[in-house]
Structure formats: C-alpha cells, structure tokens
Specification:
The structure is a homodimer.
Chain A: H1 43-56, H2 58-69, E1 106-112, H3 117-127, E2 141-146, H4 152-165, E3 168-172, H5 176-188, E4 193-195, H6 197-208, H7 228-242, E5 257-262, H8 267-276, E6 281-286, H9 295-298, E7 304-308, H10 311-325, H11 329-336, H12 338-354, E8 360-362, H13 368-384, E9 391-394
Parallel strand pairs in A: 1-2, 1-3, 3-4, 5-6, 5-7, 7-8
Helix pairs in contact in A: 4-5, 7-8, 8-13, 10-11, 10-12
Chain lengths: 395, 395
C-alpha cells in the first residue's frame, strides 16, 4: 500500500457519515424531557448498543462504575441504560451510511453550545494518535457532533443518548452552568467525559486577570466587528481562487506566497488552506515542456515555494485522478505513466535548482496542514529573520 | 459601530503578526543549550518583559509562586527570569508589526511537535470568550506559535523564553516524554501551562482501550493512506472553486450544497469553508434585475440555502468592497447605496418566498464558521430526517 497521501487533509476527515436514524419509542424514564422536540432512542439502537457493550466488555465496567458512584447519586437521576432490555441482534445494516452503529465503532459524542468546530478539531487531532487502530484495523470510531446545544434539556437528552450508545462525551460549553451540568451528569452516570474548552479558558482567564464572557460564538451578546482582519481574509480567499492553477500570472507579485509544482502535488487545496489563514496565495503549475510564466522569476524569490513528491506516489494519485476525470486512454497514460511522471518531476527539479532561493518542500506523506505548517514556518522565518522562529498574532 | 461581521472568519484571525525579532545576546545561565541553533533573548526583550510584568503586577505573583515552589526545585534548574537585569524602557516600537510586545499584550506561547493547528484553534476559540477585552479594550493578547518542536532542547529554549516574556504556555505534544517535560519545567518555573491534547487523548485511549501512538502528525512512522476520503475532499475543493460566483450553472445538480444570496453575503468564503469539510458547494449570486439560472430551480430544493443580511451592515461591507476594488463613483453608488441595497435584498426575499423549501439563513453578525454550522445542521437533519440531529463521521 502507498503509505502516504500528499494531499491528505487529515484535520477534516471525510465524507461526513450521516447519522444512524432512530424511530421514536416511548421513553419510560424521562429525566428532563426536551421542550417541543421529540428525540428518542430506538429499540434497535438499544439492542446494538447493548450488543456492542457486551462484546466490548464495557458494560461490566460501566456497571461496576455505577455501583461505586451510586453512593453519591441524586436519587432522582438514574442511569438511562437501566431502561434498556433489548437483546443482541444482527449488527450489519444494509447501508453503511445509515447504520454507522453496525460498524461496531466506539462512539464519541461532541457537544457544543457554539459551532462545535473546536471539539471536532481537537477530537480529530487526538484521533490522529490512534491511526494505527482505526477503521482499517478493527478499531473504528464514530464521532457525532451536536452543535448549538444551549439549554439543559437538550444537553441532558444527548448525554442520556450517549449513555445508551456507550459513547464518551466531549464538550465545549461556553456557558459555565451548562458545562458544570454536563460534568456532574456524566460523573453521576459513569460516562467518560472531557471538557475541551474549560481548562484552557480558565488558564487564559487567570493569565489575563479577566473573566470569560460565558457566551458561545454566535450568542446575541457577541460582536463580530467588521475589522481590517475580516476584510483582509475575505480578500485573501478571493485572490487565491482567482489565481488558482496559474491563472493571471501578471498578478503573482500581489501574492504573499507563490507555490510551484507539477500537477497533483496539492497546490490547490494547499493554497485554499493558506488563504483561509489570511495569506494571498498564487499557484503555478509546472508542466513538462511548457514555459513557466516570466513573472514567476521576477517576483521576490523569498516568497516562492517549490513542491516535490515521490514519483510512485504521484503516479498513484494521477491514475486515480485521470480515472475520475474520465481521461481517454492516451491522455491518461501521458499524464500518469511512470516515464512521463519522472520526466516532469525532473523538469521541476531543474527549475528549482536554477532558483536556489526557493525552498523545495517534499510533500510525500504530508497532509495539507503539515505542508502548510512547514511553509508558514519558513515564510515567517525568512520574512523576519528572527533568532527564535515563531508565528505571532495580535488579538 | 456596526457590531457584526457577516463574513468574520473568527476561527482564523488575521493578519498573522510577524514575530518581534530579537538580537542575540550571551545567555548566562544555559540549562540546556540548543544544538546547532542559536536562539537567544535580547536585552530589549527582557526590559519589555520586565516592564510589562511590573505593570501587570504579575511579577510579584510569579515571585510568590516561585517561592512556594522552590521547595521542590531541582537545584540545577533555576528560573531564567533571574538572569534578567534590564529596566523598563520605551515600550512603543516604530512598527506595530515588528514590535508586537510594544502593545503591552500578554503573551501566549503555543508549542507543538506537530503543526500546532490544534493549539492555535483551541486558543483562538478560547480567546473568543475574552472578546470583550481584547485589543480594542485595553487587554491585547499576543499569541506565538512554535510548531514542529520535537526535541527537548528546543522545547526548553522556548519555555525559557516564555518565562522571560511572562507568557503562559499551551502545548500539544504527542510525544509523552516531551509533554511530561513541558509540564514539569513549567511547574518548576511557575509558568502557567495547559496541555491541550493530553487530556482528550487519555480519555479516548481509555474509551477505546488502545494506547496512543505518541507520534506527532508528519512523524516518519505515520501513514496518510490515499483514501477515498482524501480524493473526495480534494474533489470538493476543486469543484467549489470552479463553481464560484455562479460559474457553470449547468453543474448545480452536482453540488451537495447550493448557496444563493446577493453580493457580499459571504457566499465565496462560506463555500470554501464547507468545501474544506468535504462538501461540493456551488454558489449563485442574486443580482437585482438579472434572471437567475433555470437550473437553480431544477435542482433538489432541499440542498439550496438562501443567505440574507441586514441592509445597513450590507451597505457598510459593500462600501468597503467598492473602495478596495477602486470602483468609479457611479458604479460604487449603484452597488452600495441604500436604495439599491434594499431593492436587491427585496428581490432576494421574493425569490426565497417563491421557493419555500429553501431555508433562509440570516448571516448578519455570524462568522463564516457559524453560518457553516447552521447550514450543516440543517443539511444533515433534512438528509436523514433523524429524531436526534447530529453530524456523524466514521474514523
């Protein structure tokens, strides 16, 4: 197997799997029914959950935990799993998309009173530490994002469902009372839970000597002033889109960063990633036998970055690309056959050698975000020639 | 003041502020000198840091903390602040970019053995809780990102510098020995420190019953397989770029999500944000008096989202836009004058009213990421008609 994805955007895995839908059932022990909404677990869901728990041996642990913690239980609060009485049934759904549970994956519930992107980003980064065991290696994980959860009833409902599905809960709740509620309820029910935003917010509050607002992003009291930053970022994205794939070479001098590389070295997604961080990026394709635009050699060479890649990996990517684009056999082989790939990379290598100021970044095995990190580190180091390289921002 | 930025990409503030460069000085007490690199603090830096500490009263706290913690100090390890003997000097630099410290901002050092994006994302989200007091309200914060820090020497150097600058340290270190080192050293020196990745990784490890790899992203042992996801995401980005601003209306049926709205409702940055999450997005501009493409009314209406905005805010954004594009006076007033703005929004409103299945999203005061969260929530709810709405993924 090719062990690298040059363009892998590992921080945002895809495609988002649709939720496993559940049919409503009567919910015998309602702790705090949601107002105006009906979100209930299904029998099938409970059976799956139970079967999974039994197989994983987790149910026993959970029971033990519950026994221990029952001592401090509020008598009104009972573990929603007690209402389960389903049995293990077939765990294979007809459609992988609609039966996420059928994958035997362990579930992670991400709950936020804002967008939930911080929880998603952190969980994703953390799951990067378990890549050796995820879906291909028999240890699949299903994440479920619940965003905009800003009242206790819906929060409770989700935590109850987490208990049913044997999920762990991670939360980013700006509202301190919601966060405290999540903490207490998870503790009472023996649900593993992690507060993502709380510890760093507390540390910053103490560092600044200022209390946090307790308002999630998008709350009515929050402001998003039309700042210079705002206009600059929009401009960077629009510029980058217009400059994509060698368009408008006369504008290269307006770019902050210029990427040069052969087709399928990830120039476009990398450009877009950098643009979202506020850099105007232009990218220039290197095509064997096609003259590069004169302006590429006229701009400040300190802002040009060459991209290179292992030929075998490149060929694999190009073959998939040619197939998905429906290239004819002839075009396809010209684009992705090894001789052609090697010649084109050699042409790129010579171009880079003639421009020794351009750093050449090996993208093989790097996710987009990693290549971006390397480029920005070099970009800031070169621009500021610091004794201690860093990327600094003012808030 | 207009208190909203419809398009504010609040998760990625911009522009990145270049580091305040320091000239090398002899470093009298070297704990663990970096090998092959010379990164040293400047006298000026120390003076600024000291002055800031004195003004903030933090130095005293820190001293107190140090006294308490000295009891457990390793005798070899001394607080690098002790080597300071500078005095407060002018704190105003000639150039805001190169003198970040001159803003009197409190510093946050973000240290990672990977890309550092998780630390940056979390700190940014957390700083969202302090928007009431940041740069405009006399409580500026400077963040400094140190990525790819994968040996103890460089880690020590940065923590030492954090002590000199009175910074707090947040870290995402996949390597457990590095993380432990950071924790211990910060504790010894009384530097406030937060481990961003550790707690969630530990919780997931315990949930999965699997040990984390301890390898940062991009480490040689890590794999990024050329998965289906990978190709799908690249395709989404490329599709979205090609479809931007109403291009290729004949391809609207290929999009997962179609956005329709008047100019400057944030269609482009929102499309790009969603594309990076793997959705193919097309956007269709609504222009007063211009017929919308027939295909917009032929595609599945459940995937079309209308965007609307407060006219006063829109006018402000358009004025800035017209100015930056150098529109002539005449074009400018046609684009951004209030009568025109209202008429165009009314035209959009009528279009939306005629297509009642399209949800209409009010983007005023929402950052791109928030609008995206609303759209994805609706998108997944509609697609899967679940009793408990969620966005699920399989890892």
């Amino acid at each position: 197997m090719i062990s690298s994805a040059t363009l892998g955007l590992s921080s945002h895995r895809l495609p988002p799997q649709p939720p496993r839908c559940s049919t409503p059932e009567p919910n015998p022990k309602s702790l705090s029914e949601p107002q105006g909404r009906k979100h209930k677990g299904s029998n099938q869901l409970n059976r799956w959950s139970r079967a999974r728990s039994i197989r994983s041996g987790r149910k026993l642990d959970r029971l033990h935990q519950r026994t221990t913690q029952r001592l401090e239980l509020n008598p009104q609060v009972q573990n929603p799993k007690e209402s389960e009485n389903g049995e293990a049934s077939s765990l294979t759904g007809s459609d992988g998309y609609d039966d996420v549970e059928a994958n035997f994956g362990k579930a992670i519930f991400m709950v936020s009173d804002g967008t939930g992107w911080t929880a998603e980003h952190s969980v994703n980064a953390s799951l990067g530490q378990f890549e050796h065991c995820l879906v291909d290696r028999g240890c699949p994980v299903n994440t479920h994002l619940f965003s905009g959860i800003d009242d206790v009833e819906r929060l409770m409902e989700i935590i109850k469902q987490a208990a049913k599905e044997g999920a762990m809960v991670v939360y980013t709740l700006a509202d301190p009372s919601l966060a405290e509620h999540a903490k207490q309820v998870c503790k009472l029910w023996g649900i593993p839970a992690t507060d993502i935003l709380g510890p760093i917010t507390e540390a910053i509050a103490s560092h600044l000597g200022v209390l946090p607002s307790g308002l999630p992003r998008g709350a009515p009291g929050r402001n998003f002033p039309l700042s210079e930053d705002y206009f600059r970022r929009i401009e960077a994205i629009e510029f980058t889109i217009k400059q994509d794939d060698g368009a408008l070479p006369q504008n290269l001098h307006k770019a902050d960063i210029v990427l040069a590389g052969v087709s399928r070295t990830g120039k476009t997604p990398l450009s877009i990633y950098l643009a979202q961080k506020g850099y105007k990026v232009a990218n220039v394709p290197i095509v064997n036998g096609v003259k590069l635009p004169k302006s590429l050699f006229e701009v400040d060479p300190e802002k040009v970055f060459g991209l290179t890649i292992n030929p075998v990996v490149l060929q694999t990517i190009r073959r998939a690309r040619a197939k998905s684009l429906g290239f004819s056999e002839e075009v396809r082989s010209n684009y992705s056959e090894m001789d052609h790939v090697r010649e084109e990379l050699e042409f790129a290598r010579r171009t880079f050698a003639q421009n020794p100021v351009w750093p050449v970044i090996e993208v093989t095995g790097k996710a987009i975000e990693e290549t971006a990190a390397v480029i920005l580190r070099l970009y800031h180091d070169r621009k500021h020639k610091c004794s201690m390289p860093r990327i600094s921002k003012l808030y």
